[in-house]
Amino acid sequence: MKNLWFRLLFYWCYEKTPIGSGLTIPYLIGSIKHIDNGTTSIEELLNEFSKNETNYLVSIDLCENINEYVIKLNDTEDFIQLKHYPRFGNFFIQDEKLGKLENINKMSNYLQNIYSVNIKDDKFSKIDGEFIKFTIDDLEMINQFKESTIKKLKI
Known about the structure:
Blueprint: H1 4-15, E1 23-24, H2 25-36, H3 42-50, E2 56-63, E3 68-75, H4 79-82, E4 87-88, E5 91-93, H5 96-99, H6 104-120, E6 125-127, E7 130-132, H7 136-153
Parallel strand pairs: 2-5
Antiparallel strand pairs: 1-3, 2-3, 4-5, 6-7
Helix pairs in contact: 1-2, 2-6, 3-6
């Protein structure tokens, strides 16, 4: 499914109840894997974020609640705030540490060092301070998204 990452973020941030503020990279990659047995890498995702041409802005920030990087989907009204942050193409970097990285490849390497083991071990959901395999609730939300998307696309 083309732009599955965008549809997942849109569903998470604007449609599901309760709405969320964003998704971790492992959760996003795990959801893509669960939905269509697709594989994607952190590098591929970051490059797609930077080339995003929707009416929404993609950003990354460190979520203080879970102490993890979260990918967010912002509407264009947020551009006034986001324009002051570093960016790679259309991908805005709200975290100070990530914002100091020179290019998207260095960011990809940095994030791979943090998340690659969890992704390899199918640990996509962070609960009580550690990444674990998807919970039943996670799988229900992902399946609701999938059903909702299929109905909209009439696949």
